[in-house]
Design brief:
Blueprint: E1 10-14, E2 18-19, E3 27-28, E4 30-33, H1 41-49, E5 53-55, E6 58-62, E7 71-76, H2 84-92, E8 97-101, H3 107-120, H4 131-138, E9 145-152, E10 155-164, E11 168-176, H5 185-199, E12 204-210, E13 226-230, E14 233-237, E15 256-260
Parallel strand pairs: 11-12
Antiparallel strand pairs: 1-4, 1-15, 2-3, 4-6, 5-6, 7-12, 7-13, 8-9, 9-10, 10-11, 13-14
Length: 266
């Protein structure tokens, strides 16, 4: 399935190369939409169809010299069939109450977020977060963001942060109680997002980037069928693949403005 191209020009910025978060022997670079450009749900939908993601107020995609290991993935929610282990995770969490609410900053939410980050990512750049960083990372004034809460009675166990798109939901981030590994809350969060997309009669759940050889990212291949963006087209995959696809990709030295009239690659 070919993605839709925006019918307008956009300006982009390319950041200087930096150490890759996933491959110690590679350098990474990122393409950002001009932050001055007005954004809304329509633009976000079109850009996600072309392999972009949202982080805070920024829309971006990897733009690395010599590597295309980061592959955009989305799930056709009407066709999704859970695996046995995923059905178990769902059953283990049937005692949870699910609430959907606008983004919020509370001591309860931030406390869980900080505990999750400091437990799961103590060495990364996200460690020791502040409340300002929490909001800047998860929300944007123009995005239609929802917090899907999981509660055991009144206790907050997890939050799945999603953006509403024209045709689906985009999974932005999930944080949950690190002291409950037996529940499989990370798996449950994706299953719940699929469920909510179906309830809203939407087509897709966008999962962000899949990297086959990265332990942090390869778990996304467990959710099938899925579509992966390759060569300008969304291609359905029913089974996991085991060969990493890396292709040449143009890089740009320094940090400079770059104008792209056509986002889709044919």
């Amino acid at each position: 399935m070919k993605q839709t191209s925006p019918p307008f020009d956009l300006l982009f910025f390319i950041e200087p190369p930096h150490d890759c978060n996933y491959f110690s022997d590679r350098r990474a670079s990122t393409l950002f939409v001009d932050p001055r450009y007005p954004k809304d749900r329509r633009l976000q939908t079109l850009l996600l169809e072309n392999g972009f993601r949202r982080s805070g107020e920024h829309l971006y995609r990897p733009y690395c010299r010599g590597c295309r290991a980061c592959v955009s993935v989305r799930l056709p929610v009407a066709d999704f069939r859970p695996r046995r282990s995923q059905r178990r995770a769902w059953r283990k969490n049937e005692d949870l109450t699910v609430l959907i609410r606008p983004p919020t900053l509370s001591e309860e939410h931030f406390g869980l977020y900080a505990r999750y980050i400091d437990t799961r990512h103590p060495e990364g750049g996200m460690a020791n977060p502040t409340q300002a960083q929490y909001l800047d990372f998860l929300t944007a004034p123009w995005a239609e963001t929802l917090f899907i809460e999981f509660r055991l009675e009144k206790r907050l166990l997890g939050v799945c942060v999603v953006d509403r798109l024209d045709n689906g939901l985009s999974a932005v981030y999930t944080f949950f109680e690190p002291g409950c590994p037996e529940r499989g809350l990370g798996v449950y969060a994706i299953l719940r997002a699929i469920h909510e997309a179906r309830r809203a009669d939407l087509d897709w759940l966008y999962l962000g980037y899949w990297i086959e050889t990265s332990p942090k990212m390869c778990y996304k291949s467990e959710y099938r069928p899925q579509e992966r963006l390759s060569g300008g087209q969304w291609k359905k995959r029913h089974r996991r693949t085991h060969r990493c696809r890396c292709q040449a990709h143009p890089g740009f030295p320094g940090f400079r403005r770059h104008k792209i009239r056509e986002l889709s690659v044919h």
